[in-house]
Amino acid sequence: MFELDGGVTVVVKDGGGDPGSIPAEAAGLRWLAEAHAGGGPPVPDVLGADDDLLVTALVPPGRPSPTAATELGRRLAALHAAGAEAFGCPPPGGPAEAWIGHTGMRNRPHPGPWGDWFAADRVLPYLRTARDRGDLDPGGAAVIERVCDRIGGLAGPDEPPARLHGDLWSGNVLWSSPVGSPGRDTEAWLIDPAAHGGHRESDLAMLALFGLPHLDTLLAAYDEAAPLADGWRGRVALHQLFPLLVHTVLFGGGYGAQAVAAARRYR
User: Fold this and answer.
1) How many domains does the chain have?
2) Which domain holds residue 144?
3) Cβ contacts of 222 within 8 Å, gap of 6 or more
4) At 23, is the pLDDT very low, low, confident or very high (cuts 50, 70, 90)?
5) What is the pLDDT of residue 2?
6) pLDDT tens digits for 66-99?
7) CATH label of the domain that carries residue 103
8) Which residues are known catalytic residues?
9) E strands along the chain, which residues?
10) Average pLDDT over residues 121-149
11) Where would one find coiled-coil regions in this protein (predicted)?
12) Which of 247, 144, 241 is nearest to 202 (CA)?
């Protein structure tokens, strides 16, 4: 954090050696900000960005509450409903070669159904990397590959592409108390997106994977605002294959075992 002339505090982030990560994040924040204008969750204002540095407004810290979780559920429904051009598409102005954490993530529009795109661009690339590095044994990798072969029958009803945060774990949800408004409840802000067009159940599945305070309250509010398709709870582990394999690539084999266990649910 840096304090500017006049006492305004901003957050400055560098790309951490990941080329293209700052332009991708800046484009994602702006895309989510467009949805905020239509009722989506708030995100920090992008005050400046180039290839190396991102400057955003500071989000004042607060504490989670059921009321804020309810509001976040409704706002996530609005974010997803803002839509995307296609599954896999980047935010406007965002690069095709983006990032999630410190590993690459390809954003390219896919004309086919969600399951085909999800298998091709969100599961198999990380599966292959993890297998080649020895973080997944061939048998475990084969279990996940069989799920990809059958994904059309597992994906549930067709839905239009949603506008996703894309890396929606609890660390990227900031509970904020508005400065100068002690009587107002906290509200949830989103930061550090890996934004793209995808399936709305994927954002919710990532929240379930890594946990969030008052998650059941959030999900109930979301389902009331934008009812989820029948059987969505049975598809949570399917959507979790992507973040689990990303974490396998980033952090090692423990996550690989979790990915295989998730895939075994669909044998």
Assistant:
1) 1
2) 59-264
3) 73, 74, 76, 77, 204, 228
4) very high
5) 62
6) 999 999 999 999 999 999 999 999 999 999 999 9
7) 3.90.1200.10
8) 167
9) 2-3, 9-14, 46-49, 53-57, 97-100, 103-106, 162-164, 173-176, 187-190, 196-198
10) 97
11) none
12) 241
